[in-house]
Amino acid sequence: MSLPPGFLDELRSRSSLSQVVGRKVIWDARKSNQGKGDMWAPCPFHQEKSASFHVDDRKGFYYCFGCHAKGDAISFVRETENVGFMEAVEILAREAGMPVPKQDPKAQEKADKRTQLAEVMELAVRWFRLQLRTGAAEEARNYLDRRGLNADALERWEIGFAPDQWQGLWDALKGKGIEDDLILDAGLAKPSTKGGKPYDTFRGRIMFPIRDARGRAIAFGGRAMDPNDNAKYLNSPETELFDKGRSLYNVREARTAAGKGMPLLVAEGYMDVIALHGAGFEAAVAPLGTAVTESQLQMLWRIAPEPIITLDGDTAGQRAAMRLVDLALPLLEAGQSLRFAVMPEGLDPDDLLKAQGAPALQKLIDQAMPMVQLLWQRETDGKVFDSPERKAALDKALREKIKLIKDPSIRSHYGQEIKDLRWQLFRPKNSAARPAGRGGKGRWQSNAPQPPVPSTKASALATAADDRTTEHLREAVILAAFLTCPQIIEDFESGLETMTCADRTHAHLRDLILRFGHQGDAVLREKISDALGYDALENLITQRHVAITPCIRNPGDAEMAAMTVAEELAKLSAMRGLDAEIAEAMEDLTGVADEGVTWRLSEAARAADQATRTGQEDKAEYEVGDNGARMSRDERSALDTLLGNIKYEKPKGRG
């Protein structure tokens, strides 16, 4: 069966040989270098203990120095699976997500045509280079000189010039006996719509040849010399040789340089690639004036596991990066991702190299951010998260993006990283804890009231002398519940974030729980010991009012711990709600009040009482108010004092 031209090349480029071979061998970790695609293992074709079987993942070939077996992905599948050529192709095509074309009886004819087209393209390369030396190209030479391209660079990149003539190249190729169809099918000319001779595709442009991974000239990119031209850059049309979405500028040279350990850089255009190469960054490619496609992304990963995207420091560059993030998320694999080097605002790599030199660019490359960081910046930069609704919108947007990741391990790590970044953004403002004087590591000063002595017969929460002590004790119970059952933290993350802690030690514990609780009990305890001292947990959990809490006596009971936390958070919220209402009401009073003030105070007191009497440990002495609400004596006294000072006047207009 004959296959269409280019299909096998595409299949080999999209099939990772190391992944294909990796199903049959165990790699030698000492000799292998996955980052360079240089893999070694005992040979699967003969019995041996040494790692003499070599896979060059970048070139797509294997060779055994023992039995001399060699080949590519197709031959490896044929030999190890004992199948024929077409069946091996079908196996690899399924894995690569490529449909196998139907039988093409004209495959050889098409292959011959592609060879002819490549020969015509080489003739065009030579003709354009000759035109750059003519008088008509003086302005183009001056432009290239201003851009820093010397004679060596012009030779290295085979840069040419298309004169501003309608049939300049056409006549030159016809003079060499090239058929009309070959010139047109190579994309070098277009048929006239007025019945005349075909006319050149490129006119009045500096010409950059585009070569494929095999080194064949497959297309051109032309930069207009006329500043008023509608298209500053123009690429060849799609042809049998050229598929823009599957091609990269300088891919062959970049593959070789990356194989020597150079970072693979992705720039926007031809001039950036040329400038990068000239500055020593030889593994540089460009996606031919369009957004990176999935095929191009797979090509990049075949060259290097973590290409670095060099972003222009403008809005368009940022938008292009975000589109690339969305494209890459579903395709991520372990060790296969992207990093982003953001140029200073208004500069591209070429500009930066001219202004600040290679060290400045190298610094940006060394600081290239991982993709998760760019994802976070997209959702947070320039936004204010001052309400629960906005925070929830951020959470939703990030969850939707993380869901795109198919690999469960990577998805989990992204979720972890986002949690850490979220904690840093939303951590409570009073979270700082200060070391106490000259004390040793982990000694922290607390300004909280001291808890009752262990000999107290009744619950400390029930006999607390004041609201401040009661709040402190409730905080201790909540924190201890999280520490003994970290798996409930995620369910109460929002409540924990907004829980104000007057005690610095409690505030620090809360922040450590938020930041490290999701990493498990062992990690959390270690982090707390490092920050607060080895005895910090013991001091918290052995306090009598904490130790007698049912969920502390039964560590690991998630349901009981969740009920305790929910109840104590509600009580704290209610208590602090009453305090806030009283304080706000006092500010509102100017000697005359209406029903609104007294209603707010009554409802706050009712909420505080409702939350308080749900717990069995809070059986303090209560008085019953006129409205039937139950509150502590201190709360009642504060309310009576406030209401006693109110001169009430019936608001006008009310019955």
UniProtKB/TrEMBL annotation:
Residues 262-346 form the Toprim domain. One of its GO terms (biological process) is DNA replication, synthesis of primer. InterPro entries: DNA_primase_core_N_sf, DNA_primase_DnaG, DNA_primase_Znf_CHC2, DnaG_bac, DNAG_N, DnaG_primase, TOPRIM_DnaG_bac, TOPRIM_dom. Binds 1 zinc ion per monomer. Its cofactor is Zn(2+). GO terms for molecular function: DNA binding; DNA-directed RNA polymerase activity; zinc ion binding. The keyword Zinc applies. PROSITE patterns: TOPRIM. Its EC number is 2.7.7.101. A zinc finger (CHC2-type) spans 43-67. GO terms for cellular component: cytoplasm; DNA-directed RNA polymerase complex; primosome complex. Residues 431-462, 609-636 are annotated as: Disordered. It catalyses: ssDNA + n NTP = ssDNA/pppN(pN)n-1 hybrid + (n-1) diphosphate. Keywords: DNA replication, DNA-binding, DNA-directed RNA polymerase, Magnesium, Metal-binding, Nucleotidyltransferase, Primosome, Transcription, Transferase, Zinc, Zinc-finger. Pfam families: DNAG_N, Toprim_2, Zn_ribbon_DnaG. Belongs to the DnaG primase family. RNA polymerase that catalyzes the synthesis of short RNA molecules used as primers for DNA polymerase during DNA replication. Contains an N-terminal zinc-binding domain, a central core domain that contains the primase activity, and a C-terminal DnaB-binding domain. NCBIfam families: dnaG. Monomer. Interacts with DnaB. HAMAP family: DNA_primase_DnaG. This is DNA primase. It comes from Sulfitobacter mediterraneus. The lineage of its organism: Bacteria, Pseudomonadati, Pseudomonadota, Alphaproteobacteria, Rhodobacterales.
